[in-house]
Design a protein that fits this description.
The structure is a homodimer of 283-residue chains. By secondary structure, chain A is α/β, with parallel strands linked by helices. The first copy, chain A, has one domain: Rossmann fold, CATH 3.40.50. The N and C termini of chain A lie far apart (49 Å). Chain A is built from 12 helices and 5 strands. A 5-stranded parallel β-sheet of chain A has the order 2-3-1-4-5, with helices on both faces. Chain A is globular. In chain A, helix 3 crosses helix 11 (244-261), helix 4 packs across helix 11 and helix 6 (138-145) runs antiparallel to helix 10. In chain A, helix 5 links the parallel strand 2 (98-102) and strand 3 (129-133). Chains A, B: One of its GO terms (molecular function) is polyphosphate kinase activity. Chains A, B: Residues 45-263 form the Polyphosphate kinase-2-related domain. Chains A, B: It comes from Corynebacterium aquilae DSM 44791. Chains A, B: One of its GO terms (biological process) is polyphosphate metabolic process.
Chain lengths: 283, 283
C-alpha cells in the first residue's frame, strides 16, 4: 500500500556539491498524493517503528554489547518546523527511549568552553533515540553570519564536527542530519500566523525578523556547512519543508531506515529460563 | 460522557493511618465499566491534556514568572507497571515538554553522596512534566528491607524527603506520588509471562525473585513510607494496579487534575503586536 519508502527519503541526501537554490522548498519529491494519503503514509509505519525502538531499548537494558543509538539532528531557519517534528514524529516512540535536547543561545559558561562541550553530554546513550533541536551546527551558521567567531575558528569547526561525528559513529550512534528547507515566503506566512493567533504569541521572537533580513547569508552559511560536513557516515538530508506534513513523513522514514539498518532482534535470556520458571512457580 | 473524573482519581489519596492490606490491588474504585469503556475514559481527555501541557510549556518559553512544573513519582513492586505507565500515559504529551528519569541501582559516586544528590538535578524545570520511575523513596524502601542504611539514617530520611518536597512545592512543582499497588499473585503471573515470552526476557531479572521473597517486608516498608511522607502538598495515591488499564487511567486523571489546578492560560505577547506585524509584512 505504501508508495513512499525509506529509499525515497534517503534520496534527499546531498553531496559535497549541493546547491541549495536548486532545491525547491515547496516541492515534495517522490510523493504526489493527497493530504489524506500523506497521513496514511505517515501513520502506517508506526507499528514497525514502535517495535524496532522497543528492541533497541531492550538490547541496552539487557546489556547487550555494541547496542547502538540513533541521533537526529534538526536544523532549519526559524519557523521551519523543528518543534513540530518532535511533537508529531516522536510520539511514535516510547518516551522512555527518547532523549530530546534543544540548544538555544549558549550560557556564559557554555561560551567559555569549546563549542562541542555542551553537545557531547546530550548524545543519546546505547538503546536511545536522541533528537537535537538545533545543534553544534549553530556554531558554524549563526557564528558565520553574525561573525561571532573568527573565520579561522569557524574553519576549524567543520573538521572538528566531522571528527566528532566519526567518533560517535564508531561508538554505534547512527547520525541523521536534516535541514528543514523552507522558502522566505513561507517563513513570512508562518511569522504572520504567530502574530495573528494569540495562542502562538509565545513562539514569536522579534529577533527572528532581524535574522530573516540576513536570509541569503544564512542560505550561504548552510550551503557551506552542508558541503563541508556531509559524509558517508553522517549524511545531510535537505528536506523541502514548505509542506510540513511531507517533511514530517520524510523524517519518520529516515528514522525507520536507521532502525532497520541495525538488524535488531530481541535480546536472548542471560539466565536459565527453565530454572527461573521453576523458581517463580515455587515462589 | 465521562463517568470517571479527577475527583475519583484523587479519592485514592491516602492518609497517615493508611493500612495497605485494606486496599485490594484487584479492585477498580469508582469505575465499574467494561474494558472498552476504560479505553474511552483513557483517551477522552487527551485533547485537554495536550492543550494544558502546551500552555504550561508556552508559559516557560515566554519567561512568564512563576511558571510551574509537574512531577509524577512512580513507585511499586517489580512488574507493577511503572514502565507501562510512561509508555502509555506520557504519549499524550509533546516529547519536548517531558523529562523522564529512571533511578536504578546507584553508582559508586551516587552512593558516596546524600541520597537526594542524584534526585535533585532530575526535578523538572519550569514548564515541564517530569516522571520518576523509582525515586528517592527507594532509599527508605529497599534500604529499610535490605538494611542498606542504619535505622537512624532511614529515620532521618523521611523528614528530609518531606522538607525536599516542601521546597519543590514552594518553587511551583506539583508533586503527585503514586504507588502502583499489585498483589503477590499478580506479580507471579507477570514474572511467568516474562519467562514464557522471548520478547520479554529482557524485562526479567533473577534478582526480582529474591526481592519477591521479601514481599511482606516490602509492604511494611511501603506502609511506613506512605504514612510518614503523605502530605497535603505531596500526597500519596495508592492505585490498585492488578488491572493495568485502570491504573493508567487513574494516573492520567491525576495529571489532568494537577494541570487544571494551575489555571493555565496562553502567555500574552511581550512585544508590540501591531509593530511586529508591520515589520514582518515589510520584510
Amino acid at each position: 500500500m505504501a508508495n513512499f519508502s525509506v529509499d525515497d527519503a534517503r534520496a534527499l541526501a546531498v553531496g559535497p556539491q549541493v546547491v541549495l537554490a536548486d532545491i525547491d522548498p515547496a516541492s515534495t519529491p517522490h510523493f504526489d498524493g493527497s493530504k489524506k494519503k500523506l497521513t496514511h503514509e505517515f501513520t502506517e509505519i508506526d507499528e514497525e517503528l514502535d517495535e524496532l525502538q522497543r528492541k533497541l531499548y531492550a538490547n541496552a537494558r539487557a546489556d547487550m554489547p555494541n547496542t547502538g543509538a540513533v541521533l537526529l539532528v534538526l536544523q532549519g531557519m526559524d519557523t521551519s518546523g523543528k518543534g513540530g517534528q518532535v511533537r508529531h514524529v516522536f510520539r511514535a516512540f516510547d518516551p522512555q527511549g527518547v532523549v530530546h535536547a534543544a540548544f538555544g543561545k549558549p550560557t556564559e559558561e557554555e561560551k567559555a568552553h569549546d563549542f562541542l562541550w555542551r553537545i557531547a553530554p546530550k548524545v543519546p546513550g546505547p538503546g536511545m533515540i536522541g533528537v537535537f533541536d538545533r545543534s553544534h551546527y549553530e556554531d558554524v551558521l549563526i557564528h558565520r553570519v553574525r561573525k561571532l567567531s573568527p573565520p579561522e575558528e569557524i574553519e576549524r569547526r567543520y573538521g572538528a564536527i566531522n571528527d566528532f561525528e566519526a567518533q560517535l559513529t564508531q561508538r554505534g550512534v547512527k547520525i541523521i542530519k536534516v535541514m528543514l528547507h523552507i522558502s522566505q515566503q513561507f517563513q513570512k506566512q508562518n511569522l504572520l500566523e504567530r502574530l495573528e493567533d494569540p495562542t502562538k504569541y509565545w513562539k514569536y521572537n522579534p529577533g527572528d525578523v532581524d535574522e530573516r533580513a540576513l536570509w541569503e547569508q544564512y542560505q550561504q552559511a548552510y550551503e557551506i556547512a552542508l558541503r563541508r560536513t556531509t559524509t558517508d557516515y553522517a549524511p545531510w538530508y535537505v528536506v523541502p519543508s514548505d509542506n510540513k506534513p511531507y517533511a514530517r513523513m520524510v523524517v519518520k522514514y529516515l528514522l525507520l531506515g536507521a532502525l532497520r539498518d541495525m538488524d535488531l532482534d530481541w535480546p536472548p535470556a542471560h539466565f536459565d529460563v527453565e530454572e527461573e520458571l521453576h523458581r517463580v512457580r515455587n515462589s
